Amino acid sequence: MKEKSAKNGGKTYRILYHSIALFFLLGFTVFLFKPFLEAGFPSGFDSIGHCFKVKYIADTLIKYGRFVDWWEPWYCGHHLLLFYPPLSYILPVILQIFLNDPALAVKISIALGVFFAALSMYFLILVLIEKGKNDLFRTMAAVGGAAAYAFSPALIHFYAETGLFSSFYAMVFVPLCFIPLIKWLRTGRRSFLVGYAFLLAIIFFFHGMAATMVGFGSILFVAVYLASARMTKSSGEPIFKGIFLLFLALVLFVGLTAIWWVPYFAQIQEIGRGVMFDPSAPTHSIPLRYLFKRGDASYIGISFYIGFCAIFLSIFAPLFRKHRAEALGFWATLLFGMIISLGTNTPIYQHLPLISTVPP
Q1: Is residue 285 helix, strand or coil?
Q2: Residues of the chain under the 50 pLDDT cut
Q3: Among 1, 24, 299, 310, which residue is least crowded by beta carbons within 10 Å?
Q4: Which DSSP category does 274 fall into?
Q5: Measuring CA to CA, how many Å separate 177 from each of 53, 84, 114, 124?
Q6: What's residue 94's pLDDT?
Q7: Contacts of 82 (CB under 8 A, 6+ apart)
Q8: How far is the C-alpha of 135 from the C-alpha of 126, rounded, in Å?
Q9: For residue 97, how many C-alpha atoms fall within 13 Å in the half-sphere facing its CB?
Q10: 131, β-bridge pairs
Q11: What was the pLDDT predicted at 202?
Q12: How high is the pLDDT of residue 11?
């Protein structure tokens, strides 16, 4: 009886901790975004274009009951959503139908996106820190990670300075992609890979390049994880078998997203080169010094984005044998992202496989 009572008491405390954490993240988001929701269009050079598309889609839905994709004034008569998949417009369009204010609709959807980003990282950290640990510590760690991710200068840069809303919405759900990957690696249940493919497809329909980077990063994460786990004998999954299973999941992802990328590449030959390596790439590759530069919104430094404490603690993460494989996998993914950002300023960038299709 006492054991059952203690178990119920622990469950009550967990629910209380999670409720307080979620209300804190929601309240903090509202507090930060109160000035952002004032009158006027969002800042950023792409903001007006996105707001216009939100208004146009809502207007056609109201007037015709369907979305008319081909519009003559848009780039001399072009498909409105050819280059950007449509998923990032669903929420702001619904808001626009009721509010009839595209600027406010987009701003509210951005604020909700920041909250969803916090939730995504919150759930990922809860998976990383398994049950059985101190519930209060587990919740506090999840809140800290969620706040660091959702309110990081990198995401702020996307929606506040450049107006890259599709990229922003894609990054909102990136942490969720690693949840089924980690559960598959820990349990060996291959059904989690199906969930991973579907989540990656959802991110793709927000922004294709973001999903591509997550796919490359996932391959590296899994390879490093399996290699490290094999060395410490904490996993019996062979490296090549694991990579092959992940490859099958990526094939499923390609099939799920074919409805968008097949027409894209079929038409891109008629209207331009598409997303291929640009000879001007050196001008878009950031120098190494910018990774440690503070106060320049155009170049968000790694130390500024993650924070000194996160970097400091992550250095010691591989010392813990139980989570060493995951820590090393995330470090490898971070270094991969740094190489992509540095681009031609690194000696190995040009030698990476398929790099010609990835702009720095």
Answers
A1: coil
A2: 2, 6, 274-281, 295-303, 305, 360
A3: 1
A4: -
A5: 28, 20, 17, 9
A6: 93
A7: 264, 267
A8: 10
A9: 12
A10: 133
A11: 94
A12: 75
pLDDT for the residue 278 = 47
Nearest to 257 by CA among 170, 175, 154, 348: 170
DSSP-assigned letter for residue 162? I
List, for residues 223-281, the tens digit of each pLDDT value: 988 888 777 665 556 788 889 999 999 999 999 998 888 877 777 665 555 444 444 44
Helix (H, G, I), strand (E, B) or coil at 186: helix
Provide the mean pLDDT of the chain: 78
- pLDDT for 299 equals 44
CA distance 199 to 194: 9
**Angle (deg, nearest 10), helices 102-128 and 2-33:** 150
DSSP secondary-structure letter at 290? Answer: G
Question: How wide is the angle at C-alpha 280 spanned by C-alphas 277 and 285, nearest 5°?
Answer: 85
Given a contact cutoff of 8 angstroms between Cβ atoms, the answer to whether 215 and 222 are in contact is no
- Structure token digits, residue 34: 């109160």
Spacing of C-alpha 233 from chain mean position: 31
Q: How far apart are CA 107 and CA 35, in angstroms?
A: 11
Q: Which tokens go with 74?
A: 């848009």
46, 165 contact by CB (below 8 A): yes
DSSP secondary structure string for all residues of 226-270: HHHHHHTT-----HHHHHHHHHHHHHHHHHHHHHHHHHHHHHHHH
Do 175 and 194 meet the contact criterion of CB atoms below 8 Å apart?
no
